[in-house]
Amino acid sequence: MWRIFSRVGQFARKIIPLMNKIKSISRKTHFKGGRKPKAGKGKPLPGTRETKEDPQRIVGILSKSGASWRLQSANRREKGEFILHAKTRFHLTEGELAVAEILPSRGSPSRHRRGPREAKLIDILGDINAPQAVSLIAIATHDIPNRFNKEALDEADTARPVTLDGRIDMRDLPLVTIDGMDSRDFDDAVYAEKDGAGWRLTVAIADVSHYVKSGSALDKTAYERGNSVYFPDCVVPMLPEALSNELCSLKPQVDRACIAVHLWIDKEGELTRWQFLRGVMRSHARLTYEQVQQAMDGAPDAITAPLLDTVIKSLYGAFRILLQARSKRGTLELDLPERKIEIDDKGRVKAVKVRERLDSHRLIEEFMITANVAAAAELEGKGGVCLYRVHDKPTELKLEGLRDFLDTLGISLVPGRQLHPRFLTQILENNAGGPHAQVVNEMMLRSQSQAIYSPANIGHFGLALAKYAHFTSPIRRYADLIVHRGLIRACKLGKDGLTDEEAGRLEKIAEHISTTERRAAAAERDAMDRFVTLFMADRVGATFSARISGVARFGLFARLDETGADGIIPINTLPQDYYFHDEKRQALIGRRTKRTYQLAQPVTVKLEQADRLTGGMQFAIVENDPAAAAEGATASAKKSFKHRGKRR
Questions:
Q1: Cα distance between residue 229 and residue 235, in whole Å
Q2: What is the pTM of this model?
Q3: Residue 431, SS3?
Q4: Please, are residues 400 and 560 in contact by the beta-carbon 8 Å criterion?
Q5: How far is CA 190 from the centre of its chain?
Q6: DSSP characters for 460-500?
Q7: Which tens digit of pLDDT belongs to each residue from 134-187?
Q8: Rounded-to-integer distance, Cα 550 and Cα 428, Å
Q9: Where are the beta strands (DSSP E) in 409-484?
Q10: For 571-612, how does the pLDDT look when each residue is reduced to its tens digit (9 = 90+)?
Q11: What is the mean pLDDT of the chain?
């Protein structure tokens, strides 16, 4: 008996300090939100400081219940109804869109959960059925600045066209712009000509820095926005339209200020030298991607016919050489279809299509990449301050998840230390056109690190480039404006270059515009999802072919083949069984039936719900789908056999 108590005592002496340590770690790391743990007499935990939580914005539809007004949330993450604070300066109308701040809960969390939370009204957006209502929801939800102050507007309105004073006259060079059919802000113009065995490419970019001076009202509002935000039916520009669509836009047959770079490319497609200058240019034509491609395919129109031999064919000649160099470099070539929303004159969705990707798109992309490389190299070579666009390698954790998924398809991935973008591209090419092509591309994308801006250069993994900066879109990206100012300073192109104050806070600028870029991307995705849901709302009850695009413990995500629309399939709607989540295989597997629903598997689904307010859709699996069942069973059998082999 004494020995038993002795061993218990020894065990207790070992386990109690361990339990206390675990409890201490839990206090420091587990509580990321909600009620904070107690530490002393209400003091902050060591190494932390108390901060006020930012008010949450909620967008929804107004309704009246008795004497009180309520807001039905349009946010999928903050569903439900909110009681509006009694005091308001607004005139309220049922059915209108409104923005509110969620007020802190009163009393205990248990009391809060019994009824609607309270919110304070801060703005009225207008009729839910009005044109641009969807985009207004996204703008308000993500707190995107969309009103210019008077000072910024006055500066834009009083700006005047540039003169030749001290600039290079480039007006005779047959530069052309190539953009989308609905574009109005033309940042870049291009021209190419043979230079011995290689090419000389000229990329002229709108000289936004001439109009947006450091520290001005225009500069402050451009910094606040960080970038333009593009929706299917409207744009929230970084700069007022007097600049973005007029004086800075490289419209045809008018003089425009530009910062241009001549790029010399050898016969291997390698950039050998470059020269930056400040000039006045005149675009000889405003072309669209479709026009240029049709001209090269043998169907020029009245605008492209005169330019075909003198301009367009030369552009494609330089493009082909650059494409060879890109292939040799081994970049990551993701092939993810981009959805395109077509809106009619009344703001209604006419169609949801996959945006066609042409060689003319890739041509402009390659020219812009080459100019961006030259900008980074010029600043670095002259010891100037540079705001790089960096893209780190995937983390080991993300690579492990990608490796596990690829393993289910019988695809092997090299160890992380040997990873190069070309190896990932080879996997994509080997699966191109196959049943898993899209999901392999998506999983590859999910495994990547986030590209960001930084004054410290770590290279660009995806493009397989040692140095890279954004230089070619200063009308819509603040990063490019900073790079322009850096070039003006480093190349002595004027007195309006990067200031010492800006150079000193470049890290803060980089962090801010990386955040605004993510904010814009989230708002654009949000609006796109809502538009697609509006398009699908009249088709509730219809069945569609789809593929499983995501697997989670709570259910599946499906993407329709026809429109690319996404929706959830809750786990409780799956054919009767208990399903467990196999994270490595990215699958839900029935315990009794062994029925398997795996990532990339084809399924037939029925649209059960299309919530016009939140933009969410819910599907249900259509049972007795022979094609899906056969593929799922085959995948399951292959994996089971593979696992049995491993167990041996």
A1: 6
A2: 0.84
A3: helix
A4: no
A5: 26
A6: BTTTTBS--B--S-TTTBHHHHHHHHHHHHHTT--S-S--H
A7: 999 999 999 999 999 999 999 999 999 999 999 999 999 999 999 999 898 999
A8: 19
A9: 452-454
A10: 999 998 999 999 888 899 999 999 999 888 999 999 999 998
A11: 86
